[in-house]
Amino acid sequence: MKITWVLPQNYDIPIGGYKIVYQYANYLAQLGHQVKIVFMKYPSYTEKGLVYNTLRSIYWFVLNKKPFRKKVTWFKLDSRIKIEWNIPANRLSFAQDEKVIATAYRTANFVNLSKISMENKFYFLQDYEIFSGSIEEVNQTWRLPLNKFAVSSWLVDLGKNKFNEKIELVPNFLDKEDDFKVTNPIEHRSKTIALLNHPNNRKNTKLGLEIIQDVRKYIPNLKVLLFGTEDFDASGIDYIQYFKRPSRKQLRDDIYNQAVVYLLPSEYEGWGLTAMEAMASGDIVVSNDNGGVNDFIKNNINGFILDFNNKEMVTRQIVEIMNHRDFSVAVEASQITSAFSIDKSSTKLLDVLIHKN
To answer: How many CB atoms lie under 10 A from the CB of residue 42?
Structure first.
């Protein structure tokens, strides 16, 4: 089967949604499918003229972002995957027998306009992307006559209830090649919290740090392992250790496997991939009720889903976990990979692509 993934521009930095596409691409290529990844050059960069492009270039330079790189350095892609770099919308072209998958609202319109059979046009919904574009633009793509599949139940329900659209569920997974697992015995870990630092407000990093401050009133020796793709000035904060763009091994061994709790304060999540990685590594996830984690966290059994509007309740729960270690929750969490594997998800994906569901 010919399978083509259409992504927005390549920043060559770790992004969860890109990672899932890359993992599918590798796995499908290993199965013998003809896999291609197309990185689009978004139209505004060619339509808005020299002044706009110059200002954007300065912005990217300041943030050390390079959106049109012709390589992916943070993830090893299978050499059998064909890659097309920086393709403008007016140069998108597909064969009639290609299964073409839009991976974000910014690519959905262009897949919809492509001159191939509608049965071969797909839309992979990884989130409700109103944080990335206007609500009108995003909603319009949900109504396109594409064959849609989503990573989580709440996105499937959103499609049905808000847009009257049928959306197939193809849940996310942990790839065994990532090798997230317990490498440091759970009972040996000190009182430590891991937290993602993210520039998007919906990720609620600031709220997470506020909750940690409240926890430290009860546990003064609490340590914090913070990680992300952006800079973070932890100088003068002796209880925070910051990891910028950690490798997968660092993320597993130096962050997740040193923590007792992984704190996920996000307002909403398409899935919550970091939470699953942390669980596989033996962390107890304390998560906001954000939709994305509800498919794999069973409250009070393998993690905790709370209303983070009540910071006092969240603080109490973390203090309880730290002071009265219930290893059974962490052990249950570490079994997550058996239920969510790339093998199972790829089987469901292929069923969607051949309209078997």
So the answer is: 16
| Low-confidence stretches of the chain (pLDDT beneath 50) | 44-47
Rounded CA-CA distance 334/330 in Å is 6
β-sheet with 192-196: strand ranges across = 240-244, 223-228, 192-196, 261-264, 284-288, 304-306
What does the CA dihedral 139, 144, 147, 153 come to, rounded to 10 degrees?
20
Listed residue (290, 323, 322) closest to 306, CA to CA = 290
Residue 53 is predicted with a pLDDT of: 59
Angstrom distance (rounded) from CA 100 to CA 121: 5
Phi-psi region of 204 (alpha: psi -120 to 50; beta: other; left: phi over 0): left
The model carries a pTM of 0.86
30-39 exposure pattern, b = at least 16 Cβ within 10 A, e = fewer: eeebbbbbbb
CATH class of domain segment(s) 2-173+341-353:
alpha beta
- CATH class of residue range 177-338: alpha beta
pLDDT at 236: 81
Distance CA(204)–CA(273), nearest Å, equals 16
- Rounded distance between C-alpha atoms, residue 170 and residue 148, angstroms: 10
Per-residue model confidence (pLDDT) at position 45 = 47
Can you tell me the distance from the alpha carbon of 39 to that of 52, in angstroms, rounded to the nearest whole number? 21
Domain coordinates of the chain in residue numbers? 2-173+341-353, 177-338
Domains 2-173+341-353 and 177-338 share a fold: yes
Please write down the long-range contacts of 74-79, taking CB distance under 8 Å and 24 or more positions apart: 74/12, 74/13, 74/14, 74/245, 75/14, 75/18, 75/19, 75/22, 77/22, 77/25, 77/26, 77/37, 78/25, 78/26, 78/29, 78/30, 78/35
Interaxial angle between packed helices 135-142 and 153-163, expressed in degrees from 0 to 180 and rounded to the nearest 10: 90
**Nearest-angstrom CA–CA distance, 352 and 280:** 28
Cα separation, 100 vs 116, whole angstroms: 9
Nearest to 270 by CA among 108, 132, 175: 132
